[in-house]
Amino acid sequence: MHPVVILVRPQMGENIGAAARAMLNFGLTDMRLVAPRDGWPNPRAVAMASGAAGQVLDRSRVFPSLAEAMGDIDVAYATTARGRDLTKTVHTPASAMAEARDLAAAGHRVGLIFGPERAGLDNEDVARATAIITVPVNPAFPSLNLAQAVLLLGYEWGRDTLPSQPTRHGRRSGAEDTASRLEVERLADHWEGRLERARFFFPADKAASMRLTLRNMWSRMPLTRGDVQILHGMLRQLTWGRDTPGGQPPTPDDHPRDAPQD
Fold this sequence. Notes:
Elements: E1 4-8, H1 13-25, E2 31-34, H2 43-49, H3 54-59, E3 61-63, H4 66-69, E4 75-79, E5 89-91, H5 93-105, E6 110-114, H6 123-127, E7 131-133, H7 146-158, H8 181-197, H9 204-220, H10 225-243
Parallel strand pairs: 1-2, 1-6, 2-3, 4-6, 4-7, 5-7
């Protein structure tokens, strides 16, 4: 069960829309608005939400007070940068969301409370929360934009379920597949043969050691099929004049790019 994001007295529609985008980045879709200054719905929020995040705004609900917005919330975290004269546990975003994941897994409804842009939550708002979240930032400038604060907590909430590495986009089909052992062997053979012709393995008493070092180098490199094709092509282009009368370089159609031409 994902946390509920509660925006208390938000002042600008653009910030509500940006918060919706930040929420959807990390799979959060339950937004509740407490007495938005400019009313609701707000066309500026819709424009800022940019496409898919509009669904967060469409599902959002408006409440006249924080107490009513928290009607079904079991545990709530109030975000604030200022010290309070209230006895509450103070979390970083990471520790708060680690606790929140455990609570949600146990069936508790979690709320994340964010204050208005100008001054943040007041003491009456914070008093209704279970704990406080404070972001460890530059003490000389602790203020965060509303959407930035939502983004930070959304990231910390989703960090255990998000992909460990960014998804690759726009790759050439098959080019990023890991090269097979046979493809790497053929590449090593191609380079060794060309280097032999160029008399690279000199002096003779060191030739065996040099070949072994090169073979070891190829086998430990994490090559893709695209890498192998490029390295074959580079070697052919560099050595073309040694085997062809006239020394004219090849054109792309002279031979395929995925195998040695020996």
